[in-house]
Amino acid sequence: MKNILALSALPFVAALTLAGPVAAQDAPEGAPSPNEIVNGAPADEWITIAADDLLVMTLAPDAASDERTVIMQLMPAPFSQGWVENIRTLARAQWYDGISVNRVQDNYVVQWGDPGHDNPESREVKTKALPEGLNVMEEEDYTFLLPGWQLLGRNGEEPHVYDGLGNRWATLSGQSNSAFHLPNFREGWPLALVPERGAETDIARVWPVHCYGMVGVGRNYSPDTGSGAELYTVIGHAPRHLDRNIALVGRIISGMEHLSSMTRGTGALGFYTEEEAHLRTPIQSIRVASDLAESEQPRFEYLSTEGETFAAYAEARANRRDPFFIVPAGGADICNIPVPVRAIEDAD
């Protein structure tokens, strides 16, 4: 049996919960909700995530001694691959074992890493030595050049982006991140695109965007771009001003509640002060899923962003017409259209 992780359903569920008497009534007939559209997706529109692209982070048990596991999905090529390779190297060297969550800033980020690295509240904590051979990335690696792109409509359809191989990207028509940034989805990831002005051929610059749950690489002042030893995830309103300024390397696909519910730090930028050192949640281990025994490997899949179901789902998220809603919004920011991800469970 397969169960969908209700990442996209949370806002709607919350709305119905607040309206208790209404929720108890029989819902009138109307257009399907985004979740109903996703639940009806054919099996061939679900893409299995490779075990080598999954990280399993085991936090110390909570106050009730309950286990806490967080699953991250790493970004595929061509995006951020130098940092992604570093993260696999760090995980396989077991460097992450014994580090901690050191920063929890309300409506912004949760950050974990070595307590002695780039932590204004750590004072004299000894910094953990990094493995040798890590990639040193440049600022230009925050984005990717896509040659041979086209923005056009085919057979009367709304404009979409096509790359040099003729592959169609899922583009939110009629919407943009700014005057020139086109929001897109490719291989299950939210991206932004802008034409390279003055190029001899059709070239676009593309980059991943800071939506809720995305995982990025902590860094110091430029030209430092970070190694992957310090990571963070977005726990608040999408901080899009960080786009193209910090490397994004993945997203949380399970266990986000363990991070977003942590006590906020009162130090600079939400770091825990020395008096709050007991609040730094220890990270017992981070492992690449493919390195675990097959029986211990988590299995997940995402809804193809190039399929018909995702197109219908995205439109429904942008213009809610299911019975609870009165007026369609007319559009949605790309971060308000989370790509559906679900765990794969063995049939009973």
Q: Give me the side-by-side strand order of the main sheet.
A: 5-6-15-14-16-4-3-17
Helical run tally: 6
The chain-level mean pLDDT equals 84
Briefly note the structural class of the backbone.
alpha+beta
Integer-rounded radius of gyration: 21 Å
Q: What portion of residues belong to β-strands? A: 25-35%
Major beta sheet summary:
8 strands, antiparallel
What is the H/E order? EHHHEEEHEEEEEEEEEEEEHEEHE
What is the overall shape? globular
Helix content: 10-25%
Précis, in short:
The protein is α+β, with helices and mostly antiparallel strands.
Describe this structure in words.
The protein has 348 residues and is of the alpha+beta class. It is 14% helix and 26% strand. It has six helices and 19 strands. The protein has helices spanning 10-18, 20-24, 34-39, 81-92, 256-260, 308-318, and strands at residues 3-4, 46-48, 54-59, 68-74, 100-105, 109-113, 144-147, 150-152, 160-162, 168-171, 182-186, 189-195, 203-208, 214-217, 231-234, 248-254, 283-288, 300-303, 341-343. It has an eight-stranded antiparallel beta sheet. A seven-stranded antiparallel beta sheet has the order 7-13-12-11-10-9-8, with no helix packed on it. Strands 1-19-18-2 form a four-stranded antiparallel beta sheet, with no helix packed on it. A hairpin with a 5-residue loop joins strand 9 and strand 10 (168-171). The N and C termini lie close together (6 Å).
